[in-house]
Amino acid sequence: MRIKTMTIKLKLVLLFFGFFCLPFLILGKFWYDRSMETIEDNAINNNQQLMRQINYNLDVYFSDIKKATLPLLAHPLVQQFVKIDPTNQYDYYDLSSRIRADLIPNMVYNRDDIYGLSIISLKGPYYSNIAFADRVDSYRKEFADNNKDNFRILGISMTGDGTEVITVFRRIIDNETYVTAGYLIIDLSLNRTTDIINQAQLGKTGIISIVNTDDRYLYHPDPQKWQQLLPAKYKNHFENISSPYFTNGTGAGKSIVVYNRSASTGLTIVSEVPLQELMEDLIYFRNLTLGFVLLLIVLAFVTILSFSLSITRALSHLMNLMKKVEMGDLSIRAPLRKDEIGSLNRGFNLMLEDLNRLIKMMHTSHQKEKEMAIHQRESKIQMLQARINPHFLYNTLGVINAYAIIAKVKPISQMTVWLSDIFRYSIDNPEDTVSLAEEIQHMFNYIHIQKERYQSLEVDVDLDLNRLKEIHTLRLTVQPIVENAFIHGYEDYSIKPTYMGLRASFDDAGIKLLIIDKGRGMPPDLVETYNQAFAFMSEEQMLQASAPFGGIGMWNVHSRLRLEFGEPYGLSIVCSENTGTIVEIRMPYRKERSV
């Protein structure tokens, strides 16, 4: 069965849905899920930090309460009070008066957070600066159930005048028998605790609560929950220390619960933030984006469909004209339009005109091909001649050397050998890579010739030739820079060359070779121009024949190094002053060749 080929219109529709709509929907779903996870993670992390900070502040506060009340436990008046005989009313009233006069002003009236102070003796008597009788029996029962705690936060209670306080008790140890003789009850103003909690803001409806060690709410924004047991689900999660958060509820009522338990007080700080509140802006933005994207998809689909119809009609008409051309009718022409299809039709018409011309030009074309073949042969001959001439000159230098040896003119013989080596090194392919040791040896030949010209020339070389064999470079890299130093550092200023230095330092990337002269140097703006060009010129600019500044010697060396090895290899001018110039060449270590 023959499968029908899909039309361009159908292909455009499929491509539109396959490469635009479907990927967008997938990416949109992924983006939304990741955004939800990120917001939830950020909310959890922020709440964890807030809970830790609140717990820390509460630890500091209750620690301060411990320190402030510690002297009371051993105070003589307190010790006498817990030891008095319950039947001795005189001692009871006497000690109560002294406590009211000496202790209460110092502890209660000097601190706005301590609302009340009470002392309960296990023998029966008790004293309090506030209405306290209705709570004594419940506290005695609490002490009997928790007689080992030295410091315990009981919870929030209501005083006789309707003030809400957090009650804390401490055991009083008899300083003679070292057994528990009574309890110190401290009623703390609830405002101090709520001030610490209210420092943290959890959005519009988020709440923060405090759970005591007995899994009851010590504090909750809803007073109806004070002293109520924690929900079983919360309690089970609180026992999992490795995951200090969980989600509660489902759907729109889902919330993030984060908790932190203090090792000092045993209090657990709990935050609950509705997830809907965190996601409100994101959901609105998602819906707005989804509506906009759907509208954009519909508009794009209509536009592509209409555009594809205009293209397919024009292409169908052009296909019919091409069938007529296949049958030999070269007189037809396609209609002209002012768009890409019009350009295609014009190209079709030009093709038909060119066919007629090509038929007439067939013989001329054969003749041009023959002429091209002749030119190619001439070019090959010129290339061979170009290779013969350098070898001829090289052989001529050998003859001159032979005559110099016969004539026993050693300087001429030596200079001929150096020049011959330079010439032989130079006629090889300049793009071949060689070791830096070979390049330095070639440079020495040039230096030897210059020393014959300038007897006072000092050559200062500090190089390890064995290590230079590991460096990878191109032919004619160092010698042009040295020659440039002679010409522009000395000869342009009519100065005899007196010094030429070479230094090398190694790092992980390769070698830094410094070429040093003591000529006049270059102007600062020219140095800046060179270094800017070395650092920022693109590969396309390096491939151009001309340099971005006056000379081409340094630019040619830098371009070849940079194009061959890439950054950071190439040239830079370290400094150039009236006392001389230092040029740096960076080259890599020799590359390992694959076998």
UniProtKB/TrEMBL annotation:
Gene3D superfamilies: 6.10.340.10, Histidine kinase-like ATPase, C-terminal domain (3.30.565.10), PAS domain (3.30.450.20). Keywords: Cell membrane, Kinase, Membrane, Phosphoprotein, Transferase, Transmembrane, Transmembrane helix. It comes from the Bacteria. It is a multi-pass membrane protein. The keyword Protein transport does not apply. Pfam families: dCache_1, HAMP, His_kinase. The chain crosses the membrane at residues 12-32, 288-315. It is found in: Cell membrane. One of its GO terms (molecular function) is kinase activity. The keyword Transferase applies. CDD domains: HAMP, PDC2_HK_sensor. Residues 309-360 form the HAMP domain. This is Histidine kinase. It comes from Paenibacillus violae. The lineage of its organism: Bacteria, Bacillati, Bacillota, Bacilli, Bacillales.
